[in-house]
Design a protein that fits this description.
- InterPro entries: K_uptake_TrkA, NAD(P)-bd_dom_sf, RCK_C, RCK_C_sf, RCK_N, Trk_Ktr_HKT_K-transport.
- Helices cover about 25% and strands about 25% of the residues.
- By secondary structure, the chain is an alpha/beta fold.
- It is built from five helices and eleven strands; from the N terminus they run βαββαβαββαβββββα.
- The protein is elongated.
- The longest helix has 13 residues.
């Protein structure tokens, strides 16, 4: 897979390193000469250019990329890069970094963004996820379909504890994608039985989140 990353700062280089270790082809683009540190990520391709300029993106051959990651520290730049990648080059997957959570509402399909990652929001979500049992925690927002990756740890008194996955009437536009049980990561099957303490990860439409939380938080009759 070929991936272009706009922004060769600490965030961009870190992402590049991870992708290269997983066998992907990576191009780092940055307009600041001081950011071009080939020795830090020698396996990557490097391009000194302004990722907001069509000529630069032509040079980067963005049309050959499977994914573009807008990872600069400037939200305006990330939005422009995302829009150009999607509309001018038809890149299938565009991931954008949100630096200021107040701008998160802009990072949507209209700007060519498939997945928006807000580091402050993600950090706070992970803190909530670590301390919350029985509360729905939003981990990540997907622009297409207005869907989110959400997590809930099933409390001991939950009515669904002991229920087969296939027997649960999940809300519409909701999909259980993973069960984390202790150190195990389970791909849910119909015959899997939910247990108290399970971390359940869903992709769910935002409009269904409240309904999902209510379903998962219903207590057993003997818990009252």
């Amino acid at each position: 897979m070929r991936v272009a990353i706009a922004g060769a700062g600490a965030v961009g280089r870190s992402i590049a390193g991870e992708l290269l270790e997983n066998g992907h082809e990576v191009l780092l683009v940055d307009k600041a000469p001081t950011a071009i540190s080939v020795e830090r990520v020698p396996q990557a391709e490097w391009l000194l250019a302004d990722a907001c300029e069509i000529t630069s993106l032509d040079e980067a051959a963005l049309q050959r990329c499977n994914v573009v990651i807008a990872a600069t520290g400037d939200d305006k730049v990330n939005l422009v890069v995302s829009l150009l990648a999607k509309t001018e080059y038809g890149v299938p997957r565009v991931v954008a970094r949100v630096n200021n959570p107040k701008n998160e509402w802009l990072f949507n399909e209209a700007w060519g963004v498939d997945v928006a990652v807000s580091t402050p929001r993600l950090m706070s979500a992970l803190v909530e996820e670590a301390v919350s049992v029985g509360d729905l925690v939003r981990l990540l927002r997907f622009s297409h379909g207005d869907a989110n990756l959400v997590e809930l740890t099933l409390p001991p008194e939950a009515a669904l504890a002991g229920t087969r996955v296939g027997d649960v009437e999940w809300p519409e536009d909701t999909s259980l994608v993973t069960i984390i049980r202790g150190t195990r990561v389970l791909t849910p099957a119909k015959d899997d039985v939910l247990e108290a303490g399970d971390e359940l990860l869903f992709v769910a439409a935002q409009a269904r989140e409240e309904q999902l939380e209510q379903l998962l938080s219903v207590r057993r009759a003997d818990a009252f």
